[in-house]
Amino acid sequence: MAIEVESRTPVHDEDGRAVEELVLNVGPAHPSTHGVCRIIAHLDGEVVTRAEPVIGYLHRGIEKMAENRTYLQIVPLTDRLDYVGSMYANWAYCRAVERLAGIGVPERAEYLRVITCELQRIASHMMSIGSTGADTGAFTMFVYAFDVRERVVELFEALTGSRLTYCYVRPGGVAADAPEGWLDDVRRVVGEMPARLAELDRLFFGNVIARGRLKGVGVLDVATAVAWGASGPVARGSGVGWDLRKSDTYSLYPRFDFDVPVGERGDAYDRARVRLWESVESCRIIEQALDQIEPGHVHAPGLPRLLKPRPGDAYDHIESARGSLGVYLVSDGSPRPYRMKVRSPAFCNLALLPLLAPGHTISDLVVILGSLDPVFGEVDR
Amino acid sequence: MNIDELREHLCGTYPDLCPLFSIEFGDGVLIVDRGRYWSAAKDLKDLGFDRLGMITAVDGVDDFEIVARVTAREMGAHIFLKTHVPRDEPAIETLTDLWPAADWQEREVYDLFGISFRGHPDMRRILLPDDWVGHPLRKDYRDERIIRRPDYI
Lengths: 381, 153
Hints:
- The complex is a heterodimer.
- Chain A is built from 15 helices and 12 strands.
- Chain A is 46% helix and 14% strand.
- By secondary structure, chain A is an alpha+beta fold.
- Chain B is of the alpha/beta class.
- Chain B contains 3 helices and 7 strands; from the N terminus they run αββαββββαβ.
- Chain B has a 5-stranded mixed β-sheet, covered by helices on one side.
- The radius of gyration of chain B is 17 Å and the shape is globular.
- The N and C termini of chain B lie far apart (43 Å).
- At the A-B interface, strand 10, strand 11, strand 12 and helix 12 of A face strand 3, strand 4 and helix 3 of B.
C-alpha cells in the first residue's frame, strides 16, 4: 500500500488537541481493491473519516467501440465487461438486440441460457465469497470456494472452449448446442454442489473470526439501498427483496420454483451470506431446468448474418450476480448500433462506498469494498 | 401492472403528462420539454417511482437526448423519461436531489458527453482522467489514435 501524504489539514479531537488527518492512497494496483480501484482514504488514526473511490483505470471505451462494430461483433466486447460473469453481459446484450430486432429465441436455447447463467452465478459468487475470506485473513476459504468455482469453469470449458470469456449467448440463441453428455455432467456437478456449499457455510460463516470481522461492518439500510439504486446481493443483504428474476421476470424464470434469500441487517456478513444462499437456489433452478429441457433448435432459424434493426431504441436487463445489468441500444437502421449503454450494477453499487466506509477502520474498508463485489471491467467499461 | 394500467394511472394523476406518454418496444416512454424535466421526474417520484435505474444520453447530432429509466417497485412498472438538450447549451437540472443514485451516473454523462447537471454536488469527470480533452461519446469527437474498422460490410 503506497502511502502518500496529500494534505495536512489540522483537525482537533474532542479534547481540543490538534491532530493531523492522514490521507492514504489505497491502490490502484493492490490485491485488496479487487481490481484496479484507487481509494483516497482520509484517516483519523486508524478510522476512516472519508473514502473516495477513484475509478476509470480499466476504462476501455467499450460503449464507443460498440458504435464501430456490427451487432454480432459486439458480443465478444460484452464478455470483457464483467469478466467474472461473462455469460450475463452476453445475455443482457442479446436480449436488448432481440427486443430491438424482434427476434424470437427457441426454447432449448433459453434453457441453455438459464442453465449457463445460473452456473455462472455460482462461479461468480464463489469468487466473491472466496475473496471475502481472503480479505478477512481466512485464505482457506478462498481455496475452498475456488475449488467449487473450478468445477463450474470446467463445465464451461467443455461447453465453449473458454474458461473466462465465453461468448456463448448470441443474438437469437446460443453459439452451439451442448456437447453429448454435457447436461449429465451438469447434473452430477450440481448434485454435489449443495453439500459443498453447506460445508463452506460451516467453515466460514459459522467461524467466530469471520463473524467478528463481517458482522456490523458497512451497514446499509433499506432506504439508502433503494435511493442509491443498489441491486443484487448488496440490496438483498439489506432486506430489499428486489430480484429481476421474480420482480420483473424474464425468459423462463416463471417456470421455476425458487426463493430469493434476503438479509436482515445489511452488513457485510449478510451480503456475503446472501450470495451463498443464492448459489444454493441456483442449484435448484438448474436441476429443474435439466428436468424440463427438450431437444430442439438452439438458434433462431433464418436469422440473417448481418442484423439491421429498425430505427428506435430498446432496453433490456437481467439479474446478474452483481445486480440489475441492463443494456440500452439505439439503432439508426444501419448494421451498427448508434449508441450502446451498459447499466452496470457494479458501478452503481460501488457509489455506496463513501457512505458505508466512514467510522470503520482501514482494514474494514477492504472488507466493505469486497462486500460490494465490484468487478472493474464492468465498473469502468 | 401492465403498460395500459400505467398509462391510466399516470393520466389520472397528471393529465398534462398524458399526451407526452407513448409506448415503444413494450416500454412506456415520457418525452418532456427541458423545462419540465425535473418537475416531471418529481411527479413520477411522487407517483411511486422510487428507484432510478439509469441515466444516460444519446448524441442526436442536432441535440442531445437525456434518457432516464425509473422503476416503481410496488407497481412493478418502468418508465423512460426523455428530454432534449441543445448542443450549444448542454446543461440540465440534476436528479440527485430526487434519487441520489443519479450522482455517479450524471458524472458519467458529463464525462463522456459534456452535459453538465445544474445543482449536482460533485460535477467532475469520473471515468476519464481530469485533464482529458473532449467528450468521447459525442459523435463529433475526434482522436487520431482511434483506428476505424474497415467498411467491409
